[in-house]
Amino acid sequence: MLELRHIKKSFGQKLVLKNVSLLAKPGELVHISGINGSGKSTIFKIITGLLEADSGEIRLGENDVVGALIENPDFLEYESAMSNLHFLANLNKRFNEKIVRDLLRHFMLDPDDPEPIAKYSVGMRQKVGIIQAVMENQNVILFDEPTRGIDQESVSLFVALLKKLKQQNKIVVVASHDQINELKYDRLFILRQGILQEK
Fold first, then answer.
1. DSSP state of 79
2. Mean pLDDT of 46-53
3. Other CB atoms closer than 10 Å to residue 160's CB: what's the count?
4. Model pTM?
5. What is the greatest pairwise CA distance in the chain?
6. Rounded distance, CA 125 to CA 98, Å?
7. Per-residue pLDDT tens digits for 91-121
8. In the prediction, which pLDDT does 100 show?
9. What pLDDT is attached to residue 180?
10. Coil, helix or strand for 25?
11. Are 195 and 19 within 8 A, CB to CB?
12. PANTHER family per the record (predicted)?
């Protein structure tokens, strides 16, 4: 379960989030739309603890583990994709090589490619970012503009992944200023002038 109650957030004099409330249940695929700068990334940063809300409440289930792709993912630039994912998963002692290899192959990336991630295209980096958000069996997953820079074939692979996550009864929240036509969301929200409203 993911619950946000009356989240409010300002940066200096600018009130970005006025009233954000949301209740998402296992197996739900949720979409949050909004123009660039509307505060979608801010919501995710508050959920993951990267930012603190001015007021309001966030609740997660006792055994929930959050995975997230927020804005442009950072990596160890001179290490391979596999080395990066190994490093990130090991922070929580959750590295599973088979799962990571399968995910890399799913997104048409070679698990044994020694090329440093610094040489990856924007789309390739984005796919590695998607993988790190799900590779530890996280059950509350946040995707911020997940299809940025990736080609149509990879978008279809991303859609297939989301359908699988939904079947596994995970909560998935996608924030983007446009919709992925291939996806059928359970619930649609729009963030406008700091207020999150269900469509």
1. S
2. 95
3. 12
4. 0.94
5. 49
6. 20
7. 777 889 999 999 999 999 999 999 999 999 9
8. 94
9. 78
10. coil
11. yes
12. ABC TRANSPORTER ATP-BINDING PROTEIN ALBC-RELATED
